[in-house]
Amino acid sequence: MSQNVGMSNCCLSGKVREGEPAGREDEIGGLQTYISEPENHSNAKSIIFICDIFGYKFPNIRLLADEYAKAGFYAYVPDFHQGDSLPLSFLDNVEPPLKTQETLSLVDKAKNAAIVPATLGPWLAKHREGVSRPLIDGFVNTVRMTPGTNKIGAIGFCWGGRYAILQAHGQSMSGSGSDIGGVDAAYACHPSLVAVPADFDPVEKPLSLAMGTKDSLLDQGTVGKIQDLMAKKIEVPHEIRLYEDQIHGFALRNDWSSDKDKKAMDESAQQGIEWFSKYLS
């Protein structure tokens, strides 16, 4: 039986990163897209970023795309929410970093928890798999057909993490009618809404996973099941890295004021860069 792991107020927490994105916006495959190019402007190694619920305009994901571009990848950050991402105001008033969570009263925690279904329920229904999967598959197909493209990677965070895993399945299952082979490699950071084992059994492409040991959406029992499932796939390159004391969303929205949290975020970025350097070459 598949176990679906949901979303919580962790998905609405985190910090906004300082800095000015260096890329540009363009329309690709009918979607507004942030693009960050490597110094040589080559799109031979392209990476598609599948954002979390805060969308493609979130400064953190654009600045991270810039880091990948500096490492030699052509980075696309499409608006898969089609202008309907959740507002960044939730970052300020819903679940704070772990060190602050531990000081909250039961009343404060209950108030935070009450926000989640009211906020996420309607949004998730609107952006369900039947709507979002064809958009993502179609974008992958558009990049595949772009002159100069050789190999493609997908990196996803939280809501987008599951779709990065689905891209590693290979053949498109979206029913969109196009013959899409998925991506060449994928990297999922603290994915949410995953079904275990259903989302992992069909994985055929190299898959890297980054998860925190304090992730409220992926408890250690669930992580253990994922590890066991992937361990049986001896023919599929994979890795699962656990980040000590890191909560859901750490790879994209961590607390820069904490040396430990910043280190985890930096290392998770390097994890993806090294993975794609190996499997998109």
Automatic annotation (TrEMBL):
Where exactly are the transmembrane stretches of this chain? none
Coiled coil feature spans? none
A GO molecular-function term, please?
Answer: hydrolase activity
Q: Which SUPFAM superfamilies match?
A: alpha/beta-Hydrolases (SSF53474)
Q: Where is the Dienelactone hydrolase domain?
A: 32-280
Q: Name one Pfam family in it.
A: DLH
Q: What is this protein called?
A: Dienelactone hydrolase domain-containing protein
